[in-house]
Amino acid sequence: MLEDLGRKFARFTTNQVVRRPRLWPLSRRLTRAQFNRIAPAWDERRSDDAFAPLAAALDSLAAEPARVLDLGTGTGRAAFLLARRYPGAEVVGADLAADMVAEAKRLTPPEVAGRVRFEVADAEKLPYADGSFDLVSLANMIPFFDELARVTAPGGAVVFSFSGGPQTPIYVPPEVLRSELEKRGFSDFAEFAAGPGTAAVARKPGEA
Ligand SMILES: C[S@@+](CC[C@H](N)C(=O)[O-])C[C@H]1O[C@@H](n2cnc3c(N)ncnc32)[C@H](O)[C@@H]1O
């Protein structure tokens, strides 16, 4: 019952943030409390194939990023995948919920620990300079498009993945992702599917 309500609230908040990001402060506290509450059990729910759509989208990227941001990292699974895939990269995992960040730190595998760090941050207003990241990943995460565009470096890429495709509580349809990204100058939009999951990538044009 509580789980079902939580999923409905996550979908409602996602739709609201995409349409009216300025209303986010109304949902922030409850969203943070919801994810803090489920943080200790979150990792048990994540199967490895939850990130198959992310992996499929990453396969399409030609360049190896040096600076990677995993936004809404939760317990850090996508951040670990990114760190393993890009052995030369520094990876930051950021999340609104301090208890998720604590779990991510606790679960960090020793072989990537020197290159992955986790921080509490709100994706609406990130504590990173413009163009800080060559790759920004959002796995099952609410997108704040203006901040996303700001922290992505020219020539960098963004990747969105949804473990359960349209059934994922936090889900944004590809046509909406594409339109919001193109408004902000992104191009080369491409879609992927893996099992029930879906993903999309887009590229921020490089400097002329
Ligand atoms: C559905 S979980 C996904 C976690 C992880 N990416 C995964 O796929 O296992 C969404 C995560 O986004 C975080 N989140 C929600 N709104 C956020 C925001 N504005 N800024 C940063 N993190 C946020 C939540 O705390 C939660 O950990």
Write a structural description.
- This protein is α/β, with parallel strands linked by helices.
- The protein has 7 helices and 7 strands; from the N terminus they run H-H-H-E-H-E-H-E-E-H-E-H-E-E.
- Strands 3-2-1-4-5-7-6 form a 7-stranded mixed beta sheet, sandwiched between helices.
- The protein starts with a helix and ends in a 5-residue tail after the last strand.
- The relative contact order is 0.17.
- The model has no long low-confidence stretch (mean pLDDT 96).
- Bound molecules: S-adenosylmethionine (SAM).
- S-adenosylmethionine (SAM) binds at residues 31, 35, 46, 72-74, 77-78, 94-97, 100, 122-124, 139-142, 170.
Give a quick summary of the entry.
The protein is of the alpha/beta class and 208 residues long. Helices cover 40% and strands 24% of the residues. Strands 3-2-1-4-5-7-6 form a 7-stranded mixed beta sheet, sandwiched between helices.
**Small molecules in complex:** S-adenosylmethionine
Order of helices and strands: HHHEHEHEEHEHEE
Give the overall form.
globular
Give me the number of helical elements. 7
Tell me about the largest β-sheet.
Answer: 7 strands, mixed
N-end to C-end Cα span: 53 Å
CA gyration radius, whole angstroms: 16 Å
Task: Enumerate the strands of the largest sheet in spatial order, edge to edge or round the barrel.
Answer: 3-2-1-4-5-7-6
Tell me the total number of β-strands.
7
Stretches where pLDDT is under 50 for at least 5 consecutive residues are none
Mean pLDDT: 96
Derived structural class: alpha/beta
Helix content: 40-55%
As a percent range, the share of strand residues is 15-25%
